[in-house]
Each structure stands twice: as structure tokens, then as C-alpha cells.
Amino acid sequence: MGRKIVVALGGNAILSKDASAKAQQQALLETAEHLVKFIENGDQLIISHGNGPQVGNLLLQQAGGSTPDNPEMPLDTAVAMTQGSIGYWMQNAMNRVLKEKGLDKTVATVVTQVEVSPDDPAFTNPTKPIGPFMSKEEADEAKAANPEFTFVEDAGRGYRRVVPSPKPINVVETKAVNTLVDAGIVPISVGGGGIPVVTENGNLAGREAVIDKDFASEN
């Protein structure tokens, strides 16, 4: 019986300088070459990933093209969208490498919701950087176009947008992920830290935030 290995890929490891789909897919293909080694060793692999650069770029694209008839999507939905796109790329890369090595293994992405507290102090103190680095002038222009955004200087490397990053309480789809693991399937879950949701009148409702993938992966 092999080990259960949780691998949390950073969003910046997937997107460095080239934000094109082709470049990110190539980065994940190179990563898959290493991840499949765990499967070859008989280990059960569980994959999560960040999405800071990807979701930030998506939000900027959405804000730039927003119209009354085609408005931009909220941050929780953008997290779900990047879960889907990165999960698709990761599945595809893993499947290619598994096929090359003659391994019969299924990889599946779970669009994952992660519950947070509506009273988490992070909602009034945004600190999580997302999106690309910008010059002061670029950040000022983005702020002027999107007054609700918050930008901060990031360690001398430029300016980035920051958003709330509440702590995870519960991974809603835990049973689904465990079922996949028990069946020997490789799940890709809590992408981008998961879609932040709170319990509201007995139902789950999305919140504008990004959860740290490492904290979510621990759950």
C-alpha cells in the first residue's frame, strides 16, 4: 500500500512570464512528468493548485470588457472559472504522461467549495495578492478604472491587487474527494484554495475572496 501524497502547485509555478494558455499548458506538462513518478512508485496522488496570477488576470480581462449587458463576474465565480481551466490543463497533461508510460490511471477535477466564516477579519483587511505585477502608473490606471480594487506595493517588485483571504473552515466536497481517492482516482481539488462560500440561511453563498491553497489543502 503506497503513501497518500498531497501536492500543492503554486499559481506562479504555472504562470511565470507568459500568460498564454499554451505556455501554462507546457508548464503543467513538465510538472506532470514529475508527478507521475509518485504514481509509478505506487503512491496515491492528490493535487491542489494556486491561481493568484490566473484569477487576477481573468478579473482584469473581465473588468476591461464589462458592459451593462455583459457584466464582469464576481471573484468567487472567477475562482471557479480558473479551477476549471487549470484543472482541465492539469488533467490533460497528466493523461498524456500516463499514456506515454503505459499507466492506467484516471485523473479528475472537482470544482471545490470551501466554507469560511462571514465574520473573518480578512474581509475588512485584504492582503492576498492576485494578478500581475504593475508599475505605479499601471496600478493607478487600474485603480481609476476599478475604484473598488485595492493595490499595494509588493516587496519592491511592483504593485499588485490584494483581496480578502479568509481561513478555511470546511471543504464542502470532502466526501466526493475521499470517494475518488478510495477508488484510486487522482483528484485535483481545492484549486485556487477553493471557492469561498459562507452558510447563509442554511444555504451556501459565494464571497469575494481568495483562500490560501496551502491552508485549504490541509483540510
Automatic annotation (TrEMBL):
GO MF term set: carbamate kinase activity
Recorded metabolic or biological pathway in which this protein acts: Metabolic intermediate metabolism; carbamoyl phosphate degradation; CO(2) and NH(3) from carbamoyl phosphate: step 1/1
Gene Ontology CC entries for this record: cytosol
SUPFAM superfamilies, sorted: Carbamate kinase-like (SSF53633)
Record keywords: Arginine metabolism, Kinase, Transferase
Lineage: superkingdom: Bacteria
Gene3D superfamilies noted in UniProt: Acetylglutamate kinase-like (3.40.1160.10)
Catalytic activity: hydrogencarbonate + NH4(+) + ATP = carbamoyl phosphate + ADP + H2O + H(+)
Domain Aspartate/glutamate/uridylate kinase: 4-200
UniProt keyword Transferase present: yes
CDD domains for this protein: AAK_CK
EC main group: transferase
Single GO biological process annotation from the record: L-arginine deiminase pathway
Protein name: carbamate kinase
Organism: Lentilactobacillus kosonis
